[in-house]
Amino acid sequence: MTYGYSGNLDPRKTPLPISGTLTNNVTNFPVQRISNLNNPSLRWEKSRQINFALQFATAGRIFSGTIEYYLKKGTDLYGETPYDYTAWGLQSTITRNVADMEGRGIDVSLSSKNIDRAFKWNTDLIYNYNSSKTTRYFTDDSKDFFGAVFNGNTIIPVVGRPLYALTAYKSAGLNNEGDPLGYLDGVLSTDYRAITNSITEKGLESGGVVFVGPANPTHFGSMINSFRWKGIALSVNILYKMGYYFRTPSFSSSTLINGGYGHADYYERWQQPGNELQTRVPKMVYPDYPQFSFRENFYRYSKVNTARADNIRLHYINLSFDFNSLTKNFKRTSSLQLYANASNLGLIWRANQFKADPDYSNTFAPQAQYTIGLRGNF
Amino acid sequence: MQALLDDAGQVMNQRGTPSFGETSAGDYFILPDRYGSMNEMLQHAYNWEPYDYLYPNDWSICYIPIYNANYCIEMLEKISHSSNPAAWDNVKGSAHFFRAYYFLMLSWVYAKAYDESTADQDLGIVLRLTSDFNVPSKRSSVRESYNQVIADAYQSISYLPDYPLHPFRPSRMAAYGLLARTYISMRNYDSAFKYADQYLQLKNDLINLNGDEDLGPSSSTYKFKQFNKETAFYTEMNANGTISLLLASRSRIDTSLFAAYEPGDLRRTYFRMQNGYPIYSGSYSAGSRQFTGIATDEIYLIRAESNCRKGHLEEALADLNSLLSHRYETDLFQPVRASSKEALLNRILLERRKELLMRGIRWSDVKRLNKEGRNIILNRSINGQIISLEPNSSYYALPIPLDVIQLTGIEQN
């Protein structure tokens, strides 16, 4: 059993403002521009953790492993929080000590020798469970702040909810004119600006926003199966992540028209009454009309564009052949090995219906890599 | 620290002053077929209907230079003056000047017109005098707001050089101009005269529209060169908030105001006509951005008006005619004569409106002149309906952003 206590200070967060150096292009005078505000009352983030660990093995180590359980308490955590920008109008939010958290987790690692003869088959399984929630939020101003829906990269200011969670506009699909429907004071509405404002004003109580779930995996780990027969070795690693949610990008009229970026959902967009029964993608509008910026934002961050992110992916396959196994004449100090491996082989299974890779929803997933090589030690 | 105050492009000068006042005033109108395509915020601002709007906005933008000023003032307390007296003085004077300048801009937009009899009760702006954001914001009274502007401007005078290295930088001349501006918006015409006069002793040259090195090339859409000889201190309206009401794609200059530029008045060439309606292109920004800084023409008009109100008609006439002789075609210029104090004052106020078009000044003028009993009623015509804003309406203190109200608990206008 161990007990740890640590502090964490983000070097970008200081009691003095941080600025960058530039030159004014009219006067050529040197310019300092502040990028981070000074916060004289900033404290360190602190965390304490207690671990219980257990190691075990059966006779002959056919089955062995460790199990670890931990409890974690964090205090004075940094978080983005809206603040009175009368103090400095360059940002409407600021990072400061905002919350306390509580977390618990289990780390399990198991090894088993399934077959242990001339042909060997081993399995290593790693399983992690991790959950955390906000236990206290410091400022009343921001505890129900939902002016922006949360993407899971800031601490959720609601006590009892996961520290990092995804929220979204509550949505009822499309109406028969192809416009997305939200909720305003409990009633279906297309007044997206009013919905946004009521969320800013009343937070969760507005009924216009919902928790989708944790933004980070709660259950995750890997499984490695290794096979060996004479000089041939094969190992396969599978990663799994479960119990979390993501937001998928979709078609946006303004990014298409102003930015020239399309999205495949364009082909699924609402085009005539009745389509609303089959699709979630709204009709295309001309974003010249600025009120549509609220509509586009609403759709982009609405519940219909979120899904379970659970997935299993094939991380790598390694295959090797060891020439030492062919002859006993090789000196033991040298070796020669032919190997091939393939990595980033993509998803085997995903829970979401968007056919999206949840871990790379806005970017391209890393490409599969294949290597073949000869390795020698002499 | 000088470098913080030299960030003219993004923070101190060009990002810049509020548009909410100018867009709420009556020197322009929205083309009827464009009204429907504007977002709700713009429609409400145009109709003088209170509206819940959020970050970013005039409020947030004006408080950025105020932060830089506060930070410099605090840091100077830890730096000995003798280490570099000239640099220390310039930072000190500039910081107080910028703070005064933006507090005044905010007061014109978010507070009622200064009224000696109610200035203690009327709500002013938030006077932030520290860089520590943990200090809560609260609203001061109108008197406290203007007193702070005056105190900071006075402070700056004793530290600044007469003339700046560049019009982005404050100077003693600009501080006199700022005080003249402040006092005339408070209807304190004695002090307005005093500081306008001090300014004009340092700088009094005007651009002659009959021919001048500071005029842009005749091929240019825009009339003037930037940083011309009349520009004592340079700022522009910021590009956020309601400024898109003033876009040439949607708005035109009020036609009756345009008609007030007589034949022979070369300021008619500030305008280009499109489908019979005038578009303004006479800004000292030499572009489509609205110049809102302190310039010599404004100070002539302040001294003329103050003198006129004090009964010094000859002096008032001299200033008015100095200005107009640089604005009218030389052959057609007839010096103005005063038949009465009232007639001269009317003419000066008309010239003020014509000369200082789209400089972020008119809103404050309408407020102040209605306090003088001029009974200026602003009208909008929307889908055939006329909407009016009555003199001294409470809406003349424009609404503060909703998120600021919620986060601070300060009182909404």
From TrEMBL, chain A:
UniProt xrefs under SUPFAM superfamilies: Porins
Official protein name in the record: TonB-dependent receptor
TrEMBL record, chain B:
Chief place of localization: membrane
TM ranges: none
Matching SUPFAM superfamilies: TPR-like
Cross-referenced Gene3D superfamilies: 1.25.40.390
Domain SusD-like N-terminal: 13-183
Location in the cell: Cell outer membrane
Domain RagB/SusD: 298-371
Alphabetical UniProt keywords: Cell outer membrane, Membrane, Signal
Pfam family, one: SusD-like_3
Family: Belongs to the SusD family.
Protein name: RagB/SusD family nutrient uptake outer membrane protein
Originating species: Niabella ginsengisoli
Lineage summary: Bacteria, Pseudomonadati, Bacteroidota, Chitinophagia, Chitinophagales
